[in-house]
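Reviewers of the previous submission asked for a worked example of the structure-prediction workflow described in the proposal, so we include one complete record here. The input consisted solely of the amino acid sequence. No template or homolog information was supplied to the procedure at any stage.
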Amino acid sequence: MVTCGQCGGKVPDGKFCDACGAAIAEPAAAVAVAKPAKTEKPRAATVTATATVAAREKVPAGMTRIEAGGDDAGLAAGSRLLGGKYEIVRELGRGGMGIVLEARDTTLGRSVAIKRLRDELQSSTRDKARFLKEANTVAKLHHPAIVDIYQIIEEGSQIYLVLEYIEGKSVAQVLDDDGALPADRAVRVMKAVCEGLAHAHGRGLCHLDLKPSNVMIASEGYVKVMDFGIARTVKDTVSRVTGQQTSGTLAYMAPEQHLGRGGIEADIFAAGCTLYEMLTADAPFHGPDYLAQKREMAYRPISEHEAKVPRKLEEAIVRCLQSDPAKRFRSAGDLADAL
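From that input alone, the workflow returned the following structure tokens.
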């Protein structure tokens, strides 16, 4: 079994995920490597995802080699400084947006996460410009519930995002490890998510790809939302270039997003799907015809799960999942107040 990089589901050996249809990358040949040397505890914390770290040759003690080729050549840990100051430590994971690396900012002495974005972004000057514009807009968002973008680096033909490094787990990982969250904890997490959404919405930016794997719970307990706007841009570009459905987020997309539309109400719908899953450890919609299920609101009521969920909380989720955007909460602040 392997883990789908898009939806996080367990997939038997094969080329495509049965749950979301994403192509499954060939696994890298993995061998044991030395554990990275202990460093100063980061100020903020890790990006999600466990990863296979590969090595084809002996690696110096305290270093981890990044399996790389093409424009990744030379990104082995400790081999050079990305952007003139970021020392690569190890690979954290791979997903729909690209490769996630842990690095150390040698100037400020702090850990950062770096996303090396998918090659498909380079196929069109227009797509690249669109992404960079979106990323620069997101980089201006500063809120305790949003992962900061510190820097955008163009090096060679590649684009790298330098991000705040969060030590903790995504909600998806917490659900995998521990099962459903108690109602009070799920509400605390979602209220923090709503605060981040409200901040972004107030500045004209929607997430459009909210899901459990994009919500981090830090070891210290605080909550951070990742990938505002930019994940959707990357996936749309990849789908257009490859002709393949790359999104592992069909289960969380609002029905209007299936038709190419989306705004604040779409984020409210995704928040409802995420809260439902936090409470039940199960997504409300399973496909294969996601759009029809969402239009008919054909999902198992939370009360039919074993979860002990207050009636008013279930009513709030039902309102989030309305097929008509006008019947949902009008803002993330309204949802937070209801919670």
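Residues 7 and 249 are 7 Å apart (CA to CA). We consider this example representative of the routine output the project will generate in years two and three.
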